[in-house]
Amino acid sequence: MENINQLLAVKRQKLEKLKNIGVDPYPTRSARTHKIKVLIDNKDDYISSEEVVTITGRLKAMRRQGKVGFGNIADDSGNMQIFVKKEKVGEENYEVFKLLDLGDFVQIKGVCFVTQRGEFSIRAHVVTVLGKSLLPLPTVKEKIVDGKKQRFDEFTDIELRYRKRYLDLLLNPEVKQTFEIRAQIIKEIRSFLDEKGFMEVETPILQSLYGGANARPFITHHNTLNIDLYLRIALELYHKRLIVGGIERIFEIGKNFRNEGMDRTHNPEFTMLELYQAYADYNDMMNITEDMILHIAKKVFNKDVVIFGDTEISFKKPWKRASMTELIKEESGFNASNFDFEKIKKFCEDNGIEVEKTAGPGKLIEALFEKFVEPKLIQPTFVIDFPKEVSPLAKVKPGHPNLTERFELFINGNEYGNAFTELNDPVDQRERLEAQSKLREMGDTEANVVDEDFLEALEYGMPPTGGLGIGIDRLIMLFTNNTSIKEVILFPQMKPEE
RNA sequence: GGGGGUGUAACUCAGCGGUAGAGUAUCUGCCUUUUAAGCAGAGAGUCGACGGUUCAAAUCCGUCCACCCUCACCA
């Protein structure tokens, strides 16, 4: 505490000194003429023309030596050496330069040149303070060894990185790059869907009933209406209302909130893409999933593969499509396709899978799938034909009363997407939601609730529809080779300090 | 929730029963082409918190807190 007070006091003193010599440490205007990258990309031109340019940025390094000093400033395009000579800027301006600290925002007006050591630099005519910092930035130094950047005293404390993401972005360039890629991926999703005629929509986050997924919600309260409201756990039910309303292709990229455990693939708020297409089914959704992810890979990375850890994931079409019971048979040798509850139950128990009292054969089949199959699905795989029991919003597969036209996309052992041929029969939908409601009464806190308003919408008539949801954060983890969701969310949930 | 790990200066870390350490950053002095600038000097710490053992605790023990890893739970 003493120490930080001391560092802080020094910075405040410098602030006062600047004011005393008539310098505004927080001027209202700046006057940049060039971004740093522009100068670097056209070095030779700026050196030979001796054009007077003005750059701005944060002071990231300082090497003073008496009547001359070197520093580095960075804007969002690059980093450049500055050279300040007392003789050139004059006595008064050199005093200003001497009062600068690492972390301050500065403006340098001058001309480009190359130093004796061969570094492209700007020779200052005028040094201007744009924003004085009052807290010291952690210091990271870099040295180039054999052409490779070696970094010293890196800012690596994971907790600090997440809690003070602004410092993380400032000091760790690869972190900034991750979020640039995130933005590009989302932009490419939008442009892909726009191209295909999907309209972007926004639906309520505050909902008086929640649905569309099996999850526990966050609850909040609206004072004027004096009612409890839920933060949405999925986008699904409102999107279907829009399909009822005659919009044939819609999508939304937005936050969902689930009041559940947190780990390296779960954050309580996370970003979901959902899209719905009238007159389509789950086969169309598989095609669109393949095309969209391949589109991202090509547009953002100019490749049709991605390296995740030691594994090369290929997005080349077609991706494997296999039914859940087929895959279970392949991996465990057990045939569950006849939905024989007693046999399945016994096989589960023999394999150490806990059987909940509300579970029927469908739920057990899903449990077998998770145990035997999921971790083995490394290359993109559409797992199709889920049990009806665990798919209350999906349409039954013709000729297979226990199955639905539903798939989940697995890559690298993780789920990335979920899609169905949507259930548009209002009578069937009511029965399924009521069955969920019974499970709920028996203690399943994640079962769906009956949403009368949604059912009423279905009763007005919904066309045959395909729907798809993709977890955006996980997709970005895949493309940026990150194993923790906290690395792809700017401000991940943390416990408050103290 | 179970198991494992980490927490010491602003940053990165060493110390692991006997006076709290290093590099960077900061401050002072010298330095007109440096680049992890250099040289000389200085200041800077409730050793995560609270208890206990001990003549003596950053160090050993216990409880708690935060974060990380892992298993379980969960999309």
Give structural notes.
Helices cover 35% and strands 28% of the residues. Helix 8 packs across helix 16 and helix 14 packs antiparallel against helix 15. A hairpin with a 2-residue loop joins strand 2 and strand 3. It has two domains: 136 residues, OB fold (Dihydrolipoamide Acetyltransferase, E2P) (Beta Barrel), CATH 2.40.50; 254 residues, BirA Bifunctional Protein, domain 2 (2-Layer Sandwich), CATH 3.30.930. With 498 residues, it is an alpha+beta fold. The model has no long low-confidence stretch (mean pLDDT 92). The longest helix is centred in the middle third of the chain and has 23 residues. The radius of gyration is 29 Å and the shape is elongated.
Number of self-contained structural domains: 2
What is the class of the largest domain in the CATH system?
A: Alpha Beta
Strand order of the largest sheet: 8-12-13-22-21-20-17-16
Structural class: alpha+beta
CATH homology superfamily of the largest domain: Bira Bifunctional Protein, Domain 2
Q: Largest beta sheet, briefly?
A: 8 strands, mixed
Approximately how much helix is present in the residues?
25-40%
Annotation, overall tally of beta strands: 22
Shape: elongated
- The overall average pLDDT, rounded, is 92
Number of helices: 16
At CATH level 3, the topology of the largest domain is BirA Bifunctional Protein, domain 2
